[in-house]
Design brief:
Blueprint (H helix, E strand, L loop, with lengths): L4 H35 L2 H8 L1 H7 L6 H10 L1 H14 L4 H13 L3 H10 L4 H20 L13
Helix pairs in contact: 2-4, 4-5, 4-6, 5-6, 6-8
C-alpha cells in the first residue's frame, strides 16, 4: 500500500494550498476589521474603559492602549504602538516591561481564537487559559521588588 512519489507531492501541494486559503479567509477580513477599529479610535475607547484592569496588572493608564493593541493585533503591532506612544508621551520602563510580559503571553487574542476555532479547538479553554496565565504572571512580575521593576519606579 505505497503511494507513488507524484501522488505524495500532489497531496502535499493540495493540502498546503487548502490550508493557506483557509487561513487567508480568516486573516484578511480580520485585518480589515482591526484597521477599521484603529481608524475609528474604538481601541482607544476600549483602553480607557479598561483602566481598572491596568491597576490590577500594575500598568499605568497610558500603557493600556499599547497593551490592548498587542492583545488584539499581535506582538508586532503592540511593539510598534509602544514605540509610537513613547515618542509623544514616554512610558516608564516598568510599564514597557509589564506590557511586554502580558503581550508575550497573550498576543493576537482575536486572531488566535478564530484560527484555533477553525481547526475545531475549544476556544474557551484556550482563550481563558492564555488570558489568566498572562494576568497571573504579569501581576506576579509587577510585585517584583528588584531589578527593572523596583518600587521606586512605580507611578
Amino acid at each position: 500500500m505505497s503511494a507513488s512519489f507524484e501522488t505524495i507531492v500532489m497531496e502535499m501541494i493540495t493540502g498546503s494550498l487548502t490550508t493557506i486559503f483557509n487561513l487567508l479567509k480568516v486573516l484578511v477580513p480580520l485585518m480589515i476589521i482591526i484597521q477599521l477599529l484603529m481608524v475609528y479610535h474604538i481601541i482607544e475607547k476600549m483602553a480607557a474603559r479598561l483602566e481598572g484592569l491596568g491597576r490590577i496588572l500594575g500598568i499605568s493608564k497610558n500603557a493600556m492602549f499599547p497593551l490592548l493593541v498587542g492583545v488584539v493585533m499581535g506582538v508586532s503591532y503592540g511593539a510598534g504602538t509602544i514605540l509610537e506612544i513613547n515618542k509623544a508621551n514616554p512610558l516608564s520602563r516598568r510599564d514597557i516591561i509589564l506590557v511586554g510580559v502580558f503581550i508575550f503571553l497573550c498576543h493576537s487574542f482575536v486572531e488566535a481564537v478564530i484560527l484555533f476555532s477553525s481547526i475545531g479547538a475549544n476556544i474557551f479553554v484556550i482563550s481563558g487559559g492564555r488570558f489568566f496565565i498572562a494576568m497571573f504572571i504579569t501581576i506576579l512580575a509587577s510585585h517584583i521588588p528588584y531589578g527593572p521593576l523596583r518600587e521606586t519606579e512605580r507611578h
